[in-house]
Amino acid sequence: MGTVHAKSLDPVPMHGRDLGVNPDDLVDSPEPEHEAKQEILENKDVVVQHVNIQGLGRTKEDLLGYEISDVFHAKNLIDVMKKAHLARQKLLRLGIFNEVEVLIDTSEGADALPNGLDVTFEVTEIKRLTGSYNTMVGNNEGSMVLGLKLPNMFGRAEKLTFQFSYGTKETSYGLSFFKPQPGHFERNLTLNMYKVTGQFPWSSLKETDRGLSAELNFPLGITNHTLKWEGVWRELGCLARSASFAVREESGHSLKSALSHTVSIDSRNSAIFPSRGALLRVNQELAGYTGGDASFLKEDFELQLNRRLFWDSVLSASLWGGVLYPLGGQVSCIADRFYLGGPTSVRGFGMYSIGPQSEGDYLGGEAYWAGGLHLYTPLPFRPGKGGFGDLFRTHFFLNAGNLCNLNYGEGPRAHLQKLAECIRWSYGAGIVLRLGNIARLELNYCVPMGVQSGDRICDGVQFGAGIRFL
Q: Quick one: where's region Disordered (predicted)?
């Protein structure tokens, strides 16, 4: 499949990851020898005769046929360019090519039509094995993280990933296999096997999870769905000798087998600094009916609304909530409950230090709600749009929430009344930094209000980092 060069129209190259191609730039000054070129550019009846892909090694051609098929439906040159650009983006999205370049040329050969075009995609495949190595340093601890990835494992965009973390305190690993449906990348299956250890100093708790999971993702209309099964062997222990009796009572081994379903609608233009759009995410989890010791029904939701105001400022409102209902007369486990407070939720309070506690250890709750109202404005001294200043925002916020346990023998009205009691709230201002489009950092000055006995507060400057913020 060689590149075709015709005398009537020079090849139109499109390079780089962003095709800022202006069709008017493709037309040279009219000259007699370029009359055929002008005719092609102005002709609305163009036929894409061949679409070639060069540079394939282990990738199966049938996989790429789904991604480039729309190019054949183009009716004029501008349409060809647009559809070729979209096809290029789809090919890059597969995660199996380092680079994709597009070449549009007139057709040659015995079957060439006067208005025929050939489109060629020149691809560079990712190596069979890629790796990464980095170190992480925290408070009195450090770890080495080694990652190995086999992209395009069987030639149809499958991916096998292994990550190993060796630290001064704990060792963790994870093995993941990702398989998309050809032609529908959003429909995919992920299988995981992992061992992860977490330390939760606010509860004097250490948890080691060894588990398997299977996750199916698929879109349905304007919604996205995730179906998941997870089987995990959990080992809970005390992080310190001073752990409360309530935490020691939770220590030991348990087996959790749970089915969950998540549905989301996301119309935001950005996940970190959205200026418009809304997000609704609802999650249900049912444990116990497929085996295991844990038995409960868990419901939680997240709602976010964003609206652009004057001078590039944005008003954002968010609401979280959830309920955990133990089944079979069991008592809920400390590892399954909700936690609230800290720089990523109700600011001005210590990390997860709101709600039920025993001897200074926070035990979580079976019901919670949290709301936030935020005003984001550009920095006064930012150097214009598109510059470094676009990574920062000034942040004014008002947060509120509550976390408690419920007596399920009472009615819904009593539950709502309990959630409306002892509301914690805070306000403040700060600076927000965007890290790519997946995470952000916050440095805020917080004023906590509605503090209850046992709550741990952070009055003054508070620093936070994460991927999910209230």
A: 1-34
Give the span between the Cα atoms of 400 and 459, in whole angstroms. Answer: 15
- Which CATH number applies to 181-369: 3.40.50.720, 2.40.160.50, 3.40.50.300, 1.25.40.10? 2.40.160.50
- CATH match of 47-125 with 3.10.20.310: yes
Length of the chain: 470
Report the alpha-carbon distance of residue 293 to residue 286 in Å, rounded. 12
Measured CA distances, 17 to 66, 88, 97, 239 (Å):
20, 9, 12, 48
Q: Where are the alpha helices (DSSP H) in 213-341?
A: 245-250
Rounded Cα distance, 269 and 401, in Å: 27
**169: which 2 tokens?**
């305190």
- Rounded Cα distance between 458 and 202, Å, is 14
The model's pTM: 0.81
Per-residue pLDDT tens over the stretch 335-381: 999 999 999 899 999 999 998 998 889 999 999 999 999 999 988 76
